[in-house]
Amino acid sequence: ASRFAEVPLAPPDAILNLSTLYKADTSAKKVDLGVGAYRDNDGKPWVLPVVRKAETAIYESQVEHEYLPISGLKSFTDAAATLILGGDSVAIKENRVTSFQSISGTGALCLGANFLKHFLPQGTIVLLSNPTWANHKNIFNTAGLEAHEYVYYNPATLGLNLEGMLASLREAPNGSVVVLHACAHNPTGVDPTQDQWKQIADVMQTKNHFPFFDCAYQGFASGDLDRDAFAIRYFIERGFECSVAQSFAKNLGLYGERVGCYHVVSRTSEITDKVRSQIARVSRAIISNPPLYGARVASQVLNDPQLLAEWKESLRAMSGRIIEMRAQLRQRLVELQTPGNWDHIVNQIGMFSFTGLKLAQVEAIKSKHHIYMTGNGRISMAGLSTRNIDHVAQAIDDVVR
Ligand code: PMP
Fold it and tell me: Which reaction does it catalyse (predicted)?
């Protein structure tokens, strides 16, 4: 008999399940709005030209394939820290930042969760936005941390419930870890304004909470790398210690290469040295040392002024296409006089939009119109194109009436 005979079958991953259904659909009209990856106007993945150039340069330089140090490729992690914290970051100048190359954003969150579990007071809880990226809870729970929720989204306005959020932060035990989406909140597309970030920081400072920024979309949201890093830099300027999980999956289109970084900003450089030594132990236990290839690609781009400038162009192209799709979708719904207000489509930002469609409408749009989205009504804006946007707008109009 198998020792695993009693292992219960886990439920299928909702997003992966959706893509299986999409692939099986034979309709020519089918549209995939589930996918969390950029697509061009032809619905194709896009390899950034700077990535191709960096790959060519790496290939031609005949590199070897030795192990990296535990903390990763230094030319990459240094440039990644500068990218997210800013070229004039006082924390970097004062050696108060430690950076570890990670298995993309997920690996950075995992490294952080395991480090915090060991070194924050026993019983420290983690607060996640409601709703949030589905994997957050898994990651923190797997590291042995208890995850709770803070109010974030207001279904009535399809926007931020700031008062609710601030109240949750006030009610939580002092010194809690608060996971904040640095920009382009997944799944809602709803970000605080700069003034709202200030109010959030005020409460978090009073409560001595620890901000853990998840930054999976820097430059991909607004098209401007600095603007999308506002919240992180603002909290650090105010004197917060914090963690940042940084992903290069979306902004460099390096999804499968798993390029990321985990940063910790501490009060002093002496503390940073100790923190660094302990994160190294955690990372050693999980991955020994990180993968080289994607970090080399990212390092080439980040450290070459010409490639960096070209990358910024591509970021504007990707975010620009998405912003354009938002405007066009809203305009069509207004023209069709689809019941309801559709301003939230353009007010939200980043890869995703929370449409406000209910589960029954999501099911109907799938079965009647071959349009696939997650059950909570979230659509990936990257799945829209000038080719399918009329069909999508008419289908939304149909299921909403
Ligand atoms: N955080 C959020 C909010 C995300 O949306 C994602 C990507 N879906 C990630 C982290 C991590 O992605 P990756 O591990 O591919 O970098």
Answer: L-aspartate + 2-oxoglutarate = oxaloacetate + L-glutamate
